[in-house]
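Design a sequence for this backbone.
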């Protein structure tokens, strides 16, 4: 094996085309672009409106098995698949989420793919990009400031400071900000109260940003946000503060999707970035619907494993946006399957067909779950150069017994040509096999029952458990008129259970519910399970320690 270059080294060697040339591939004129340098641009509102009458292409979701420290490569496979589709002559493009700075400087890494299946400019994308996250954070915190200001000046809405549910946000993993006291220092500094910070990707503004269909819908949803309650426990909306206009104004430019390119100069839209373990984990509806009007095949992804990202993609994004996916690609690696089969990370070297076969229990659960939504599914093995033929064959045979095709894809090493076989199969799947997409539950099902249905049907749980206070919150939400909303589960991504160490395909466990949060603007209910945090912390040795600037003023150490 030749020397393996880092993702950053590969990205820095990329032969990028001018973003105008990338736009031409999907019939976007130059005057429709708001250009950021030569390699990234936003698409303006006039063109976004013009293309709405175009015929829709096929929608392909890429998801994965339950994540492990060994890696699965969902974004990498998404990029490889779109490059593979373009390689075999299809008009295709990809829709991805923007990365959060938290994971970039923490432990997960970026969100631009890897190896020879990346979107570029990689450093820009993983750091500030076009400033969307900064705009979302500013919009969110403007609302926080307006709430506290209203209380300071007479509080005509009778906001109960003890019942404000709206925290502040910052796009960084900062555990010290989870719980704070604000308003200290005397009467001129507001009313002292308990509050805290979430990471920006967990913000309801982020969720609304990614679910809104247009600017008008964005403003309406922002106005519908319930940020707190009166002393009589009546919900108070942002529209009562008359803040929706100002918040939307801060988001106007950011709300236009970002156009970039893959290493093979194929078009990519990156827009929005909610986490799938604490939010709904999908890129913006704006970007997805635009891509469907511009390409024959659109590849998109949903965060973490299919129990989180894919379920929310189906039950929240598709339900709210009227999308109907045509196929699902489920990603796995031999290393990840070995870990699900009981092998420790430090022992992954060397062939272990037995562990892979055992680990395929996790793969089988995810396949079964996807089939519950009526969408055709294929398995993609993101090939690693140390994989063996016997390991691959074991996975292929396992999938075959389930009636599902499994394709080995070497896009990480070989780019689009390495994903050609996968691309041919997926194209054939969407062209010949009709999807019968359906959501997992109806709008009319009670909130508690929706939550239990997800836990039992998708997680293999025996039941959900919660104390009286949490149960009452479910009932209160229904009394307040929010009972028809879908459920957004906040749960560890590492397991079907709420125990991150319980790998494979556990069954019969209970799912403890710690908290229930209303996202009235996004139009879903967040159910917080186990010990999951909406403000993550940094690891003992954060990735930031390896990041810096070299003597030529280039960023180094970024993956």
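Sequence:
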């Amino acid at each position: 094996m030749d020397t393996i270059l880092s993702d950053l080294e590969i990205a820095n060697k990329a032969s990028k085309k001018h973003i105008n040339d990338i736009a031409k591939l999907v019939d976007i004129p130059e005057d429709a672009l708001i250009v950021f340098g030569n390699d990234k641009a936003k698409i303006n509102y006039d063109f976004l409106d013009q293309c709405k009458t175009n015929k829709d292409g096929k929608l392909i979701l890429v998801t994965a098995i339950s994540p492990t420290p060994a890696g699965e490569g969902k974004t990498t496979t998404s990029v490889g698949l779109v490059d593979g589709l373009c390689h075999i002559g299809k008009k295709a493009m990809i829709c991805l989420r923007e990365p959060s700075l938290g994971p970039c400087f923490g432990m997960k890494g970026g969100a631009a793919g890897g190896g020879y299946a990346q979107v570029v400019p990689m450093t820009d994308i993983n750091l500030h990009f076009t400033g969307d996250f900064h705009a979302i954070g500013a919009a969110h915190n403007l609302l926080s400031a307006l709430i506290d200001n209203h209380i300071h000046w007479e509080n005509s809405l009778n906001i109960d400071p003890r019942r404000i549910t709206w925290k502040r946000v910052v796009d960084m993993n900062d555990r010290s900000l989870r719980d704070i006291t604000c308003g200290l220092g005397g009467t001129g500094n507001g009313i002292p109260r308990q509050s805290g910070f979430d990471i920006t990707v967990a913000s309801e503004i982020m969720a609304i940003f990614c679910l809104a269909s247009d600017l008008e819908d964005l403003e309406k949803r922002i106005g519908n946000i319930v940020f707190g309650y009166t002393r009589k426990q009546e919900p108070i909306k942002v529209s009562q503060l008359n803040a929706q206009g100002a918040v939307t104004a801060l988001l106007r430019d950011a709300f236009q999707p970002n156009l970039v390119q893959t290493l093979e100069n194929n078009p990519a839209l990156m827009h929005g970035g909610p986490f799938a373990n604490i939010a709904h984990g999908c890129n913006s509806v704006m970007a997805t619907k635009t891509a469907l009007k511009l390409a024959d095949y659109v590849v998109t992804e949903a965060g973490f494993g299919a129990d989180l990202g894919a379920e929310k993609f189906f039950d929240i994004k598709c339900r709210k946006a009227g999308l109907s996916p045509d196929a699902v690609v489920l990603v796995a690696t031999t290393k990840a399957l070995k870990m699900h089969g009981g092998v420790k990370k430090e022992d992954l070297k060397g062939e272990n067909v037995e562990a892979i076969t055992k680990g395929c229990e996790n793969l089988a659960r995810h396949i079964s779950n996807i089939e519950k939504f009526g969408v055709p599914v294929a398995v993609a093995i993101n090939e690693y150069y140390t994989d063996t033929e016997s390991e691959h064959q074991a996975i292929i045979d396992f999938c075959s017994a389930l009636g599902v095709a499994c394709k080995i894809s070497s896009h990480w090493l070989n780019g689009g040509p390495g994903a050609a076989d996968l691309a041919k199969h997926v194209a054939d799947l969407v062209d010949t096999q009709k999807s019968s997409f359906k959501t997992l539950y109806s709008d009319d099902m009670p909130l508690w029952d929706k939550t239990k249905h997800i836990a039992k049907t998708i997680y293999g749980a025996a039941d959900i458990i919660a104390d009286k206070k949490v149960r009452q919150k479910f009932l209160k939400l229904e009394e307040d008129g929010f009972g028809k909303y879908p459920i957004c589960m906040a749960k560890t991504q590492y397991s079907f259970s709420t125990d991150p160490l319980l790998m494979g395909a556990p069954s019969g466990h209970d799912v403890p519910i710690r908290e229930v949060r209303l996202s009235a603007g996004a139009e879903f209910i967040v159910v917080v399970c186990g010990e999951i945090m909406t403000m993550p912390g940094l690891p003992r040795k954060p990735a930031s320690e390896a990041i810096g600037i070299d003597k030529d003023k280039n960023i180094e150490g970024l993956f």
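The chain has three domains: 7-130+254-432, 134-250, 451-529.
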